[in-house]
Amino acid sequence: MDVNKAKRNVVARGQQDPRVKRELEEMQRTDDLRKIDDDVEDVATLLDWSALEHIHQIRNPQWFAVFAAVIALIAIGFIFMGNFIASLTIAMIGGYMFIVAQHKPSKIRYRLLTEGVALNTTLYHYKDLDSFNIIYEPGDVKTIILKSNKRIMPLIHMEIGNADPVAIREILIQFVQEDIHLEEPLIDIWARRLGF
Questions:
Q1: 113 in the same domain as 186
Q2: Which residues of 28-43 are buried (b: 16+ CB within 10 A; e: fewer)?
Q3: What is the mean pLDDT of residues 27-56?
Q4: Quick check: 155 and 147 in contact, CB under 8 A?
Q5: Distance (Å, rounded) from C-alpha 184 to C-alpha 150?
Q6: Mind giving me the DSSP string for 146-195?
Q7: Which of 17, 23, 53, 59 is nearest to 38 (CA)?
Q8: CA–CA separation, 1 vs 98, rounded Å?
Q9: How far apart are CA 106 and CA 152, in angstroms?
Q10: Are 45 and 27 in contact (CB under 8 A)?
């Protein structure tokens, strides 16, 4: 995709229509796309796709039984050591993980816009992104990792789903530096291997 041509079209549309120009300027300042008119979002969209927020693994009753047994053994072990707080903490973490394991992922609308990347209605501006990497292993992992320069949210994940990773890369590389050494956090890898 010719990103420069698309950006020129957006600018031309903004020069023709004062409302579009105002909305495009607002898009440069806001991170909430609900404040932007849908038709202006469509004009500024370079690529659009939907995918589940993570790969959902269906678990059988035996998986839950083994999980509950492991959590119970760890909690009982802490009780025997006299550490009731650790036992309670493990039980609470186990309960939370049980709920998360049953949660079905939501479908998210991902977009590459002229001003940034959007996950549903949240816009992450390119100026706030340091680098990106596409991790594409069909059947296992198909995700984009974006490294933010904000400390409170250093990594942003975008699932690729059935979208074209080459087209995504061609657009992103024009706005953000590619870092092939940017990897998934270890916790994400382990969570996927454990079925979360």
A1: yes
A2: eeeeebeebeeebbeb
A3: 82
A4: yes
A5: 18
A6: EEES-TT--EEEEE-TTS-HHHHHHHHTTTSEE-TT----HHHHHHHHTT
A7: 23
A8: 43
A9: 23
A10: no
Shared-domain flag, residues 75 and 148: no
- Burial (CB < 10 A; 0-12, 13-18, 19+), residue 65, is exposed
- Amino acid (1-letter code) at residue 71: I
pLDDT in tens, 57-100: 677 788 788 888 999 999 999 999 999 999 999 999 988 888 87
**Nearest CA to 156 among 130, 186, 187?**
130
Of 41, 70, 102, which residue is a domain's last? 102
Residues paired with residue 48 on neighbouring β-strands, in sequence order: 111
Give the Cα separation of 196 and 179 in Å (integer).
27
Closest alpha carbon to 114 in 2, 1, 10: 10
pLDDT at 72: 93
How many Å is the Cα radius of gyration of the chain?
A: 21
Are 73 and 136 within one domain? no
pLDDT tens, residue by residue, 8-34: 566 566 557 777 778 777 887 888 888
Backbone dihedral region of 86: left (phi > 0), alpha (psi from -120 to 50 degrees) or beta?
A: alpha
Rounded CA-CA distance 42/28 in Å is 15
Does one domain contain both 85 and 109?
no
